[in-house]
Design brief:
It contains ten helices and ten strands. The chain folds into two domains: 1-137, 3-Layer(aba) Sandwich (Rossmann fold), CATH 3.40.50.620; 145-309, 3-Layer(aba) Sandwich (Rossmann fold). It is α/β, with parallel strands linked by helices and 309 residues long. Helix content is 38%, strand content 19%. The radius of gyration is 20 Å and the shape is elongated. α1 packs across α3, α5 packs across α6 and α9 packs parallel to α10 (280-287).
Length: 309
């Protein structure tokens, strides 16, 4: 197994499956499509109607894959039905099959109350040890560009300890798509000091020199430049420093027509880039108009998304 896509037969999961199918086709990777049934509902179905819930779900999954990816697509991929807690079964399937990428859709909502709280995506992101591609329901399948087809990759940077590792993954994703990279740092507005500008990791540390900008924005731009140099990106990425509410600024940049993907490194333990209510990562995942490739803090090293080459 290389790519695992979990579906629940909803329109958002159809969008996610479309993305997963295109990635699998582009990079000639095996795709596993998983659906998980609630054990109580499965038991009730068996007792009430005498039907085998697994057989019914297996047929429904076959039809769903064919309807989403095209007639006969289900026969070309591995389709799995499990019974249990969805997040537990998704993570179990990913671990057992050695998936390099998990693809999920989010249900979404509207307005300021748009949250992932309690969703399967949130629970998976809390415990995942491999990259998770979160696809929002607002993405139109006809206009969606996914990994392998991207035009611009947005990388929010807060200069945490693993910024180079996350940047390298973003660079590999961009190269596989012949896409450009935009490195974005947001200087906090109302959020005060909750988003770290400096200090940066030692090899990106900005030291004042007579000919260097002394403003916080100038230092942030220089730190982004050092990061870009360390990543060896060609062409040189666009560097941008914004100021304001961090999640809102990230979403505003992501709304630009050329941005197709956000690559977001998640922090372990506590902090703004954990997937918890109120954190920047949580807010970005809830409000992003484009898919987000979330990199859990355990996801480091050159083997991440190895199928990209």
């Amino acid at each position: 197994m290389s790519i695992l896509c979990a579906v629940d037969f909803s329109p958002p999961s159809s969008v996610a499956l479309t993305s997963a199918g295109r990635i699998a086709a582009t990079f000639a990777q095996p795709l596993t499509v998983l659906t998980v049934a609630d054990p109580l509902l499965a038991t009730a179905q068996r007792l009430h109607a005498g039907d085998d819930p697994l057989a019914l779900l297996a047929q429904a999954l076959t039809d769903f894959v064919d309807d989403t990816l095209g007639a006969g697509a289900a026969a070309a991929h591995r389709n799995v039905v499990a019974i249990g807690d969805p997040s537990v079964e998704i993570l179990r399937a990913a671990d057992t099959g050695g998936a390099q990428l998990i693809v999920l859709g989010t249900q979404g909502a509207t307005g300021v109350s748009k949250v992932m709280c309690g969703s399967v995506a949130e629970q998976v992101l809390h415990a995942a040890t491999r990259p998770v591609l979160v696809v929002p329901p607002a993405v139109a399948t006809g206009q969606m560009r996914t990994i392998g087809e991207l035009e611009e990759v947005l990388v929010p940077v807060d200069f945490h300890d693993h910024v180079l590792d996350d940047g390298r993954v973003a660079a590999r994703v961009a190269r596989a798509s012949h896409a450009t990279v935009r490195l974005l740092h947001v200087m906090p507005g109302d959020e005060g000091g909750r988003w770290t500008v400096l200090p940066t990791p030692i090899d990106l540390e900005v030291r004042d020199q007579p000919d260097q900008a002394t403003s916080a924005q100038g230092k942030a731009l220089e730190a982004l430049q050092r990061l870009a140099d360390a990543l060896g990106l060609e062409p040189m990425p666009d560097l941008e420093v914004a100021q304001g509410l961090v999640s809102e600024e990230i979403a505003e940049v992501a709304n630009r027509e050329t941005v197709d993907l956000i690559v977001l490194g998640l922090h372990g333990g506590t902090g703004l880039f954990t997937v918890r209510v109120g954190t920047v990562a949580y807010q970005v995942l809830c409000s992003s108009p484009v898919p987000v490739l979330a990199l859990p803090h355990e996801t480091r090293g050159t083997q991440v998304l190895g199928f990209l080459g």
